[in-house]
Specification:
The complex is a heterodimer. Chain A is mostly helical. Chain A has one domain (4-306). Chain A contains 14 helices and two strands. In chain A, strands 1-2 form a two-stranded antiparallel ribbon. The two termini of chain A are 18 Å apart. Chain B is of the alpha/beta class. Chain B is 40% helix and 24% strand. Chain B contains ten helices and ten strands. In chain B, helix 4 (101-111) packs across helix 5 (119-133) and helix 4 runs parallel beside helix 6. The termini of chain B are far apart. The chains are: A mainly alpha, B alpha/beta. Chain A binds chain B through residues 1, 173, 176-177, 179-180, 182-184, 186-196, and chain B through 56-58, 77-79, 82-83, 87-88, 90, 94-100, 103, 106-108, 110-113, 115, 117, 119, 158-159, 162.
Chain lengths: 309, 249
Amino acid sequence: MNNLWGDRAWLAAVTIGVIAMSALPFVANDYLVGTGLTLLMWLALTQSWCVLSKMTGYVSLGHVVFYGLGAYLMVVTWQQLPFVLVILAAGVLAALFAALVGLPVLRVRGPYFVILTFGLAELVKFSIMAAESASGTASRILFGTPDLVVVYFSMFALALLATGLLTWVSRSRFGHGLRSLRENEEAAETLGVPVVRFKLIAFVLSAAIPGMVGAVMALRSTYFVVGQVFDPMISVTVIAMALLGGGDDARGPILGTLFLFIVSEVLWVRAPLAYMLILGAVLAGFVLLAPGGILGIVDSARARRARPA
Amino acid sequence: MSTSAAAPLLEVRDLGKRFGGLTALAGVSFSVSAGETIGVMGANGAGKTTLFSLIAGNARPSTGSIALDGQRIDGLSPDKICRLGVARTFQIVKPFPGLTVLENLRTAAMFGRVALTDRGRADRHAMAVLDEIGMTELAAAPAFTLTLAAQKRLEVARAIATGARIVLLDEVMAGLTGTEVAQMLETLRRIRDSRGLTLVVIEHVMQALMKLCTRIVVLHHGERIAEGTPEAIGRDQRVLSVYFGAATT
């Protein structure tokens, strides 16, 4: 349980990462900048997912719903409101939606919560699909979106925000309360943790970031299809990244996102046919052999090295 | 005239709980003064644990009222009741298995009545409790690695670390060996006296109850059938008949 964030190695690695990602748009071509943007997107989504699901053990399979809502808000308000304002509004919209559905949804635990969040995301997807087709819109195209560099740095800010949020939560009294209720909700409540309020706050915090991320990604793709921004694979990928990373602080999502992102990119280029097969095998291997994720492997290696002293 | 001296710390009046058609508790009344140690006796299914769940807020009473220091607490959520100074342990232990013993107590210190929001202060408070209960060397151990006896001690330590004024202990000696029971008794007495705690104790280990308590309440099928000093309870014909099937008539 030693705090690796305090470690110089970690601090150095994160600093180098931040500098490298800041420099990227000035030295790389559009393709690479776009790739960097995607990486930052996954990082922001995974960090924010962990705020609820890693901290409380309420595994959400519906994280994409907030992303989709944010993207949709950007698309329907496009060229009517300044996009920076809409990005912030998308965060507020997602947070409000979480606050609205949170109380009933967070009453169920375990597999029921997983299924419920998945169903809720699908429900919202099909509702918006119906609304769109009723208004005769199959898809939408955004004209005059901001430059890629602007989009990139917006996402960078969100990735930093999400990382900062999980770092703060995992170290705070609030986070200790969330961990306690994850371990045993009834005991936590009986020891004074306001579990209902804490779960709701975690859910709302966890929702705001994907709302903004969705809005920014709408600027990036410029082409909007409902099924794409509410794609359940986005939720699944986020969970895979979080599980691969392990732990319940901001280090896990960084490791997991980087690992899965690099492996996917390499496989996509080198072995397009076996891509999903190999990816599946890697995930299954982790779940079976290293349920603690990369962080679990790192920490136990450190513990082994530290013991014989 | 001092009214506070007369007002009991905990007052349970006409308390009842039904689960569907099953009556777990019916019209139970008793009061506990500050500094007292009250025993709750009764066979399995007598309603002892239900009584604790109602007082601690884990379940809502169907009838009756519960007052702490003259203030109604029935209907409040468990976390609010804890912050007001009531802590309970669970008969079937509920540790935070993935957290260390110290982290288990940190929750109580941060969120309980003492409300030590600063982590350093919370941990110092928690370590003092662990020291008093003789678990210092286990502070860094994950709770799931503890033996049953140690997990029972952890339940007690965590409840005390909330800074509670009144602690409800639900069979904290059940399943322990004779030596462990003696140790637990000694620890409870010491902590009760050093912290000025009021205890309500559910126990099947009768000897322990007799040694620890000033007064005993006996429940049978959800009703209070007797109340008195340990000696009086030991002679009570109804209690004896319920427990040992002694002929009364």
